[in-house]
Amino acid sequence: MTRNTPVKTVLKTGLWLAAVASLCACASTPAPAPAPQAATETQVWAERVKVTPAPDEILLMVHATGLSDNQRVALQALVGRWLQAEGRELVVTAPSGAGAMAVQVRERLIFLGAPAAHVRIVGADPSLPPEPVLRVGFVRYEAEVPKCGQAWESLTATRDNKAYENFGCAVAANMAAQVANPEDLVRPRDMTPADAGRRDTVMGKYRRGEITSSARDDQASGAISKAIP
């Protein structure tokens, strides 16, 4: 820059550079993250509900002639408990040489109402001592209900103006006691498969340029009946 450069030009250039630098700094500064919301008393107690797996298993002696009458009755009772508990999978653990009977057990479970996709045959763990029995069962879950009302502290003594420790405990205890399948407290259910038949019908109408919605009947019109009572 030469000596003939006016002072005002130098000042304008400096101010312009400072403005550009401040705009770049504002553009690069990330927005502050929102503060996390504090958990309510009910949410805190819901996290204290303990859900533990409890295997439901029966042992079947291996017979060369197949299933006995007592074993058929035991399998029927097992399937009943599996349906009531809404279990995910029935597992047949077969030792070496018991593959034929394991297949019979699987077919019996399917006959009693268990879907074929939910019945699986596995081999026994070779690291464990061998045993001449078939293990048939599933994993059910149990929820431990929290004990409420153990300690009711005094708000006047603490002077913290906070909720009682037991607030929310009764709601969590009732939820744990009434839930049909405690596994729902651990993870969501598996999604059911899509209705491929309905999808093909709708896509076929769409390709032909037809209306894809279902036909509407008179009962779904919402019209008030004019019949004389």
UniProtKB/TrEMBL annotation:
Q: Looking at the record, which segments are called Disordered?
A: 187-229
Keyword Signal appears in the UniProt entry = yes
Q: Does the keyword Cytoplasm apply?
A: no
Name of the molecule in the record: Pilus assembly protein CpaD
Source organism, top-level taxon: Bacteria
Which residues are the signal sequence here? Answer: 1-27
Q: Which UniProt keywords apply?
A: Signal
Supply the Pfam families for this chain. Pilus_CpaD
Biased-composition ranges, Basic and acidic residues, are 187-219
